[in-house]
Design a protein that fits this description.
Blueprint: H1 30-39, E1 43-47, H2 51-59, E2 64-67, H3 71-74, H4 86-98, E3 104-108, H5 118-132, E4 136-140, H6 146-154, E5 159-164, H7 170-173, H8 183-199, E6 203-207, H9 211-220, E7 225-228, E8 236-239, H10 241-244, H11 262-279
Parallel strand pairs: 1-2, 1-8, 2-3, 3-4, 4-5, 5-6, 6-7, 7-8
Helix pairs in contact: 2-4, 4-5, 5-6, 6-8, 8-9
The structure holds 3-methyl-2-oxobutanoic acid (KIV).
Amino acid sequence: MNASPLSPAQTQDGTPTVLYGGVTNRRVTVRDLAKAKQHGERWAMLTAYDALTAGVFDEADIPVLLVGDSAGNCHLGYETTVPVTMDQMVMLSAAVVRGTKRALIVADLPFGSYQESPAQALHNAARLLKEAGVGAVKLEGGERSARAIELLVEAGIPVMAHIGLTPQSVHAFGGYPVQGRGDEAAHQLLRDAKAVQQAGAFAVVLEAVPAELAAQVTEQLAIPTVGIGAGVNCDAQVLVWTDFAGMTAGRVPKFVKQYANLRAVLGDAAREFAAEVGAGTFPAPEHTFK
Ligand code: KIV
């Protein structure tokens, strides 16, 4: 595999990196991620909700793809993640698995699919592994989700935890406020992080927390932290793909960097197509059967 100048597959001295350069003929595993933390190697995660987009990110050496329940607002047209169902997550996750060869695919357990009991969490996580073929699941909550995480891990299901701003609790939060501000909230975030690690999670997403607190959590945990709006000192960073690629309409959160402007590119292409159809210049002879 050739490493382009922008490829994360090699370190500056040319040796392969643990995740991007070391794994070529199989999927990334949670053991690779543990090794990356030991080597101090940072990695990127993107969301994906369909086979084609996931394939692009896989070819771009993104080692972990998240079939987030952000599919609710970023793919399925809901206002929040709350309405997303297990059946929808299974369908989207299966597509992402089919579209990829190397990335570890992590699927979200949607709202209402794990809070009832650890047994409910196990039932639904098993569906994502058996029916969609994902390699790991993610669920929201720290101390409150520890028993569910423990049961899944005992059953052989790798679990990524998610603490800080947990979007499934949007109605309880009254929006999407930054979490972990103030002494008591910061201590709770640290307790949550330690509880999910203790329960066996292989990584933890820290969403919308002050950078200094995220750095502290990252230093105190043996498992990788995956930041989104949590500053630069996390072990990994995740962005929602429609935000990072400039597909999202309107405002995006402060923590988003837009690496492309796909909404403008696609809109311009659609307008040009419609204009050419209107003018009778498409299809041209080269697009026409004789
Ligand atoms: O659903 C999602 O996309 C997520 C990320 C924001 C981490 O949970």
